[in-house]
Input
Amino acid sequence: MSDQKVVEKLKAKFFAEILDVVEFRGETTVTVKKERIVDICTFMRDNFGYNLLCDLCGVDYMGQSPRFMVVYNLYNIPTKQRIRIKAPVDELDANIDTVSTVWGTANWHERECWDLLGIKFNNHPDLRRILMPADWEGHPLRKDYPVQGPDREPYQGRLS
Amino acid sequence: MAANTSETMTINMGPQHPSTHGVLQLILELDGEIVQKATPHIGFLHRGIEKLSEHRTYHQIIPLTDRLDYLAPMSNNLGYVLAVEKLLGITDEIPERVQRIRVIMAELTRLKSHLVWLACHALDIGAMTVFLYCFRERECITDIYEKVSGARMTSNYFRVGGLADDLPDGLEGEIRTFAESIPAHVEEYEGLLTGNKIWQKRTIGVGKISAEAAVDIGITGPALRASGVDWDLRRDNPYSGYEDYDFEVPVRQGCDTFDRYRVRLDEMRQSARIVLQALDKLKPGPILADCPKIVLPPKQEVVSNIESLIHHFKIVTEGFHPEPGEIYQSVEAPKGELGFYLISDGSAHPFRMKIRPPSFVNLQGLPQMVEGKLLADVIAVIGTLDIVLGEIDR
Output
């Protein structure tokens, strides 16, 4: 099934949830509202066979509203197809439902997203920091977090 | 003395422990010798590569990627440059010679990574000789690395749009001799291990994971293929001209440590085959794409041609500006699917670079592979997952 067909069927089922569909370099990205993300992901897995969640990550679009985006890169092992789902998340209400019930692999990816960007995943079985120490303050991948780390002079060398 | 079976003991394995292959910490809850619960703790080697890359130009990120999976640096470089080339839309401009050399180096890297894996895995389980044999062969690959890139481990040979330099004279013959020797060497390792009763006892039925569970937890690469899932990105979503080569994707149904071992050994034979085919198809030609605004010009031209000097200056000081957009590109790294998700906002730095490291995801499968099993099996399972902490922690 081509990407267009998948998007068409997804639109037929979740018309009110789809915000945007973009194609770039042959890859399809569907932006959806965050409220029914679990239903949409379950639908993608069960109806179209996207059985592998390759990657899940957050992106910080500081200065825009909503500020964050949670990105799901899906893969269909039988048909070798990829598709990308994105869901915007607001800064003041930085949370989204976990998809670790849909793909077990989301567990650690979501922990990483929480750790580095501070997006909470509702109903997550074990939402702890994963890469940073447990007592770390702040979320390093946010755009307002200094690259040299907190309480340090910016590096004046070749870092442009 | 009455045994108190209701009591469990918590032991701390790592982060400084030779068989955790780096700085992995496992908190193990033991009932006697049985592991009740295993909790991995990672992040001890976190260097913030994704954050750093948001502040560097696209070319400056290549040396950071070698530090992900430092046992397979060229695979990481390949994944990254392919991602940037896709973002720029110059995938079709890459000269044939570049693609062939990239495939040769990527397959040598697979051999290099698998040799270290086999060496350490066997050493962990108690077979010392294999370690020495594997490192003997690995040395040949590090020598080849040194000749092409100047570095033995953190090579930095691929560039966006091409290669840093052509292969030095005489190296093709050296690579061919080495690749031709691989099947005999693999035979030798198999002779030491496959029929070995101790090896079999330590690996058969150990660390089982079914195909469904493996896909659910996101395991990729040889570990997935040993659970019976026939999927290899080189064949199924070919990149860098892999569709031109004739090779098999080894798949086994055992789902255990022994079959993961056999899949990787078969992969080594296939890698040698691909290297030889690529050498046969290798023809003289340019080693850089014809995209002067993106690709660094050859050094000779920089000193003799004003246009090239300007391009060189612009690319080094400012970088290039891909059009806004986002792409995901993945390659079949020795450990599994290595993906780069790049977002460009039109500036000279990536707006966001997310690395999908295969080891990070594969390690997630460890608790379900060891819980309810013996403590000694934890060592075997860490070995069989072939994790590299540089990549897990980034």
